[in-house]
Specification:
2 domains; two-stranded antiparallel ribbon
Length: 488
């Protein structure tokens, strides 16, 4: 029976790995996952490449502001400096995050004494779902943060099994600091590692890791502050709470909004129900390193989801990766769960493979390898043919044309305007003066959905009102609205 289960799990793993490779081929050859948020990361990288590390909130007719930490766009900027096209550099840097995620999951499972076959299955499971692959190929920081967090955890799990454990603690602290440089909420992994070390009776090692990680994060913040003349800190302060008060951010947590949101995805809901069942069957597993990673990454993601402008598919990457590691590890660590755990991993691999086959089929049926580049080319032509400066809601469009985006991040622009009303007032003045030859919007501002979008998410209602008063809709380009200055 056990041999049959092992064979089935390995077959499911091979199928899932094949789907990952196929999905990657479609994504990298089409750029179908590239969107507005991708453009923000690419614009940050281009600014850095040109010597502007975090632009000011407003200066010289350009608007900055972002909540993003720098590691991903520094990697992209490095690729650009090495001669890569900006889009290729972004895709490769983001794909590197996916590689770190899958190898980090494997390394952690092996350090926890999980067999090679089960460790491979757990690692593939961590990467296989559509939302993880979408983050990998859409240029997002979550896979990179999750991968570094898992690698740091693997260093801690090695513990006294390796020579010079203090050196491994230093390496783990470095990886946790890099994870924070990718996404600050990734510090959940450092906290989990410290608590696990304390639970193992290694209080001195726990204290050493805590001090080293705190020192690393302190250095990171100091470097960010000094190297940007305070611009990074100003940007983070402007966008930290997304325009909400700390008390307002507690309401979604108290209402368990993140939990309800989680179960809007049947797959994610199923994964975390299996995790909960495993923890109930073996309560001690909650205090293990994999268990602590699941709990603390879920808390960190719930906090992130409480802020406006965040979405489940991005924020779920880290707790899902931790859950995949936990399920594979629990199938090894608990004799009571060995059969059920192996069956659960197999079932999840088959489930996500079925979804992956459907998604790849739909992408190929839509011929995205031709249509996605054609849409980007149409947007590029529209921007290049415009008479005058182009104001684009999406920074991706000017990035594609080789020009510096006026708006770095339309969400951060609206949020910064809540504490700096002079910023949207400046753009409104420029719109009234018809300074821009063309404006490209992602949504129809006169539709019900568009009205909510611009009032609560991007730009702000006053900016859109000024736009509609002084610009006329000309045509739709690849699903975006092209507006030109009217003659009044």
């Amino acid at each position: 029976m056990l041999r049959l289960l092992t064979a089935a799990r390995l077959a499911a793993t091979a199928l899932a790995a094949t789907i990952i490779l196929l999905r990657g081929w479609v994504a990298l050859t089409s750029g179908a996952d590239i969107n507005l948020v991708s453009g923000v990361w690419l614009a940050l990288a281009l600014d850095t490449h040109e010597g502007v590390f975090y632009r000011p909130l407003a200066e010289g007719g350009y608007y900055g502001g972002t909540r993003y930490f720098p590691l991903l766009f520094l990697l992209i900027a490095g690729g650009i400096r090495g001669g890569l096209d900006v889009l290729v550099a972004g895709q490769l840097a983001s794909a590197m995050g996916g590689l770190l995620l899958v190898t980090g999951a494997f390394a952690l499972l092996r350090r926890l004494s999980v067999g090679v076959g089960l460790a491979i299955s757990g690692a593939v499971l961590a990467l296989a779902p559509y939302f993880v692959l979408q983050s990998v190929f859409a240029i997002r920081t979550e896979p990179l943060a999750a991968g570094l967090a898992l690698w740091g955890s693997a260093c801690v799990a090695a513990g006294p099994q390796v020579p010079r454990p203090r050196a491994w603690a230093l390496f783990a602290a470095l990886l946790f600091t890099l994870a924070a440089a990718a996404k600050p909420t990734a510090l959940y992994a450092a906290v989990a590692a410290i608590l696990a070390l304390a639970a193992w009776g290694r209080q001195k090692d726990a204290a050493r890791l805590g001090l080293l990680t705190a020192a690393g994060c302190g250095i990171l913040l100091a470097v960010l502050s000094v190297s940007t003349d305070g611009r990074a800190m100003e940007s983070f302060r402007a966008g930290a709470l997304a325009g909400e008060t700390p008390l307002a951010l507690l309401r979604p947590l108290v209402r368990l909004d993140a939990v309800r949101l989680l179960f809007t995805s049947h797959y994610l809901g199923g994964v975390f129900l299996l995790v909960a069942a495993a923890m109930l069957a073996a309560p001690r597993q909650v205090y293990s390193l994999p268990g602590l990673l699941v709990v603390l990454s879920s808390v960190a993601s719930a906090v992130a989801l409480a802020t406006p402008g965040t979405i489940l598919t991005n924020q779920a990457v880290e707790p899902y990766a931790a859950a995949s590691v936990f399920l594979a590890w629990s199938a090894h660590a608990s004799p009571r769960l060995r059969t059920a755990g192996s069956m659960a991993v197999t079932a999840l691999l088959l489930w996500t493979s079925a979804h992956g086959i459907r998604e790849v089929s739909l992408l190929l049926e839509a011929n995205v390898r031709a249509s996605a580049p054609q849409e980007r080319a149409a947007l590029q032509r529209a921007a290049e043919e415009c008479r005058g400066t182009v104001l684009s809601e999406s920074p991706l469009i000017p990035v594609l044309t080789g020009t510096r985006p006026i708006l770095l991040d339309p969400f951060a622009f609206r949020v910064a305007g809540l504490i700096r009303p002079d910023i949207p007032a400046d753009l409104i003045t420029r719109l009234r003066a018809r300074e821009f030859g063309c404006v490209l919007l992602e949504m129809d501002p006169e539709s019900v959905r568009g009205q909510g979008w611009y009032a609560n998410v991007h730009l702000g209602a006053p900016v859109i009102e000024a736009l509609l008063d002084h610009y006329t809709f000309q045509r739709a380009v690849a699903g975006r609205g092209l507006y030109v200055a009217d003659d009044r």
